[in-house]
Write a structure and sequence with these properties.
Layout: E1 2-11, H1 18-36, E2 44-49, E3 52-61, E4 67-75, H2 76-79, H3 88-97, E5 105-109, E6 112-121, H4 126-140, E7 160-167, E8 170-171, E9 175-176, E10 179-180, E11 184-185, E12 196-197, H5 204-209, H6 217-234, E13 238-240, H7 243-252, E14 257-262, H8 272-282, E15 286-289, E16 295-303, H9 310-335, H10 344-347, E17 351-353, E18 357-358, H11 359-377, H12 381-390, H13 398-402, H14 409-417, H15 422-427, E19 432-436, H16 441-444, E20 451-455, H17 482-493
Parallel strand pairs: 19-20
Antiparallel strand pairs: 1-3, 1-7, 2-3, 4-6, 5-6, 7-8, 9-10, 11-12, 13-15, 14-16, 15-16, 17-18
Helix pairs in contact: 1-4, 6-7, 8-9, 11-12
């Protein structure tokens, strides 16, 4: 016989990045644990919201298959003494099999006769196995920092408030985290603060939906996408909704509702990449752009409730976003007081690795290379050298200090603002293919989304970065295949 098993862990708000990661990891752990327990099963559905992790396992066997047991004991010669009595070896083997020595069999082999045991072990039921299966899954979830609460011994990513364990409509015995499993779970914090009763594993989504909770993360993503596109169209534009922002908003909400807002047009004087970045990173909101891609004085936020007073929610979002834009405006205005060349002396004091020198040393090497390449390509050597010399200057600007991912982009804006030739300004925000050998890639990689990183460690084993001898003639970047680099370059240039 088979059943549909539903397991849900109701918790205090999960870390945003843990919502889908733990649900997916849990699905894999359940699949492995059930396989190890010889419990056949079908598909495993995952559900994840800020306040719950759940898995529904279809066509799950309610009992392990019975197992045939075959064991080989001591030889017959060692099983009896000279008087024909059972020896300790024989008696011990029989006891380990749960039978009398006289009930053991004898198997003839080319190497002589041996005592054997043939029996059958009844498979355990799902009810019996569930506590250990559940403990295994919870203990092996990839939780970076576990919490303890109350006086129970178990730990989890957040305090556990409810447990649901249903085999179809039947409650299974499960007691963990100091909580006894039942069919009651958490509804929406505002719309349905009272408990929700799950009638069966099959009705899980419908029961939660009635309590203003969309259990499926992918469904919430699609709902957000549709609502955002609708709001943007009503504003006469289109929304910038990266996949990462979409996933994050779906992980922050149980009943997502898109709501638009506006901001003072004076902030449009700030580079739009800055406004978009602060909206996405700090407010988790979507920017709205017109047909030509120019940002409009609107944004779209995702609320976690269906408010009876949307105007108040809109004003609240507008009030929160205003100081963020004011900060960005301040950084922009402060940076415009300086020329990019003013930052060059300060680059002497910026060092990521002693053996490679300062950023100033790096720019000087780039300047030399730029002049040589200009001679080959026919470019203006002085412009190329200037672009190389200024290429790292914006790293010390107030704006890039606040938003590291805008390096290069801000350099282009600052170069244009101080009246540098257009080709120099454009060069500061060019697409990059950065090659890394045995260095701290995560720490030193370019932040710009126009940069593509190729690491030699993906193609060969590299020594530890701190053990590198820069006087060694070995060129570890040679592990990177040329065709890989060329394909990255082709993609960046749109060839």
């Amino acid at each position: 016989m088979t059943t549909t098993l539903l397991i849900e862990i109701g918790v205090e708000e999960l870390p945003t990045k843990a919502v889908t990661a733990l649900a997916t990891a849990g699905r894999d752990l359940w699949a492995q644990a059930l396989s190890d327990a010889a419990l056949a099963h079908g598909n495993i559905d995952t559900f994840a919201t800020p306040r719950r992790l759940a898995w529904r396992i279809h066509d799950l066997a309610e009992k392990q298959p019975d197992q045939k047991i075959e064991r080989k004991g001591p030889s017959l010669a060692a099983a009896k003494d000279k008087d024909g009595n059972w020896t300790k070896a024989a008696l011990g083997f029989a006891a380990s099999c749960g039978v009398e020595a006289s009930d053991l069999g004898i198997e003839e082999t080319p190497k002589g006769a041996w005592l054997t045991y043939h029996g059958e072990q009844a498979g355990q039921t799902l009810e019996t196995l569930l506590p250990e299966l559940f403990r295994h899954v919870c203990d092996n979830l990839p939780i970076a920092k576990r919490m303890r609460w109350g006086d129970n011994e178990q730990s989890f990513v957040r305090p556990v408030l409810t447990l649901v364990a249903l085999a179809d409509e039947r409650i299974l015995p499960l007691d963990y985290f100091g909580v006894r499993a039942g069919r009651d779970t958490l509804g929406h914090r505002v719309h349905h603060p009272e408990p929700v009763s799950i009638q069966s594993a099959a009705s899980y989504e419908a029961d939660l939906r009635a309590a203003h909770v969309i259990a499926s993360h992918s469904e919430r993503m699609e709902r957000i996408r549709e609502q955002v596109e609708k709001e943007a169209a009503a504003l006469g534009g289109r929304a910038i909704l990266p996949e990462a922002l979409l996933i994050e908003n779906a992980s922050l909400t149980e009943w997502p509702v898109a709501i638009s807002g506006s901001f003072d047009e004076r902030y449009l004087a700030v580079p739009q990449e800055v406004l978009i970045t602060t909206m996405q990173d700090n407010q988790k909101t979507c920017a709205v752009v017109g047909a030509c891609g120019k940002i409009q004085p609107h944004f779209i936020a995702i609320a976690n409730l269906e408010s009876q007073d949307p105007a108040t929610v809109r004003k609240g979002n507008e009030k929160v976003i205003r100081p963020r834009f004011a900060d960005a405006e301040f950084f922009w205005q402060q940076d415009l007081k300086h020329r990019l060349a003013d930052y060059l002396p300060r680059l002497e004091a910026v060092t990521y690795q002693d053996k490679l020198g300062s950023l100033a040393d790096k720019t000087r090497r780039l300047e030399t290379l730029a002049r040589e390449l200009a001679a080959v390509t026919g470019a203006d050597a002085e412009h190329a050298a200037t672009a190389a010399r200024l290429s790292k200057s914006d790293l010390l600007s107030e704006m890039v200090m606040e938003f590291p991912e805008l390096q290069g982009i801000m350099g282009r804006y600052y170069a244009a603002a101080e009246g540098l030739p257009a080709d120099i300004a454009a060069a500061l925000d060019k697409p990059q293919v950065a090659l890394f050998g045995p260095s701290w890639v995560g720490r030193w990689r370019p932040y710009s989304d126009k940069a593509e990183v190729v690491w030699a460690g993906d193609f060969a084993e590299l020594p530890h970065p701190d053990s590198i001898n820069t006087n060694d003639a070995t060129r570890l970047l040679g592990a990177i295949p040329l065709d890989v680099v060329w394909e990255k370059v082709r993609a960046k240039l749109g060839l």
